[in-house]
Each structure stands twice: as C-alpha cells, then as structure tokens.
Amino acid sequence: MNTPIPRWLIGFTAVVYFFLHLPVLVLVVFSFNDSKFSVDWRGFTLQWYQRLLERPDILRGLKASLIVGGAATLISAVFGTLLALALARQRFRGRRVFEGFLYVPIVTPEIVTGISLLLLFALLKVPLGLTTITIAHVAFCISFVVIVVLARLEGMDENLEEAAMILGADEITTFWKVTVPQLWPGILSGALLAFTMSFDDFVITSFVSGPGSSTLPIVVYGMVRKNVEPSINAISTIILLATAILIYLADRLARAK
Questions:
Q1: What is the pTM of this model?
Q2: For every residue of 219-234, which 3-state class applies, written as one string?
C-alpha cells in the first residue's frame, strides 16, 4: 500500500522548484518584451526572434554547433555502443577499473578538461578549429552513451541471441537482427543526450575553439559581453526549449521496453 505524501512536503518541493526555475521563466517572458531594455515591459512582440535571422554571426554559430554536435554524436554513439557491448559481454582483468574511468569525464570539472585538451592539442601541434572541438566533445560525450547503453544491456534477454545462433544465424546477422533492435532505444537515448551535451557546451569549447569556429554558446557569450539585448533572451529561450525536448526524448527512449 502506497503511503500518501504529506502536503507540506509537496508544498516545499513546489517552492524549491519555483525558486530554481524562476530565472529561466523570467528569461523566457522577457524574450517577448517589446522594450529594448529587459527590465521595462512594454508589450508582447516577436521581433527579437525575427531579428535572430538577420544576425549572420548567430547563423554561423548555429551551423558550427550542428556540425560539431552531429559529428560528435555519431562518433560517440558508434564507439560508445561497441565499448558498452565489450564491457557487458567480456570478462577481463581490470574491467571494474575500466568502468570506473568512464565516470572521470563526467565528474571532472569542465575547466580542467578544457585546459588538459588545449595542452594536448598544443603539444601535438593540432590547429584549433571545428576538428579539435569535435574531438573534445567526443571525449566527454562517449561516457554518457556508454552508461546509457550499459543500462539497456542489463535488461536485455541474451537467450534471444543464443536462439538466433542456434537457428543458424551467424554472429554478424545476430548482431544486426537481434542485438541492435533491442539496443536501439538505448542507443538513440545516449545519442540524444550526447548531442544535448555537445550543443550546450561552452567551457570546454572556449578552450579548444579557434578563429572562425565559434559555436552558438560562444557567440551568445560574446553578445552578452558587448551588450545585453532582448535577442539574447530569444536565442537563450530557443536553446532552452531545444534542450528540454531532447532531454525529454532521451528519457522516454531510455524507459522504452
């Protein structure tokens, strides 16, 4: 029998959530403000969203973010899935330690990761640009994919694979016809999570980006430093909405049977 949740606990939770999301709510509301000054409400307008299409720097930043996010997601999804399969199906010395290292990119402060990657690229004399940003994003995105796919593998029935091989299917056919369809929700969930992390990243990207390779978060930060205008609220609202949708889809796919 489920114990009813006390009303005071529900109320306290609602207050905490409201406090945490109040700044975001204010940002969204003032993205529709007709006044150029965010603290002065003058009426509803969509002009700041329309003005985004007139900013070539924002469009270039969006293009760079999509290119980097797409490449990092694809690489992380492929190698992350293979790595998860190796960890789940193989038993070897140091496996637990290897699994522990998967969490290092997640718990390491982003500024430390950014500095270390910058030093590595400088040591190898790799020119900074979209390539180095993509490599940096793969370095931390792949851990999220592995963790999600590993969780999916724990709920898989290995008897289906054994049955397929007993019935005459070889290992490759079994992998594509039986294993991948069962893993697909986990792979997509990890990929969406990886794309979200890549698209939103600022700290690490700021260390490994070069001239002409600014992603959208870098462009937005540059706009804030020059002048706080309502178009910043508009682009921030769009990023927030896109991120929320991707996280929601990733969560639904991770829960899929």
A1: 0.81
A2: HHHHHHHHCCCHHHHH
Dist. CA 81–CA 143, nearest whole Å: 10
- What secondary structure does DSSP assign to 238-256, as a single string? HHHHHHHHHHHHHHHHHH-
What does pLDDT average to in each consecutive run of 10 residues of the chain (257 residues)? 73 86 83 74 81 84 91 94 85 76 85 92 91 93 91 76 74 78 85 89 90 86 75 82 82 69
Tell me the residue type at 31: S
Q: Which residue has the tokens 């590993």?
A: 150
Q: Give the torsion sign (CA, 158, 162, 165, 169).
A: negative
Nearest in space to 190 (alpha carbons), one of 242, 246, 139: 246
Contact of 120 with 204, CB cutoff 8 Å: no
Domains contained in the chain, CATH given: 7-255 (1.10.3720.10)
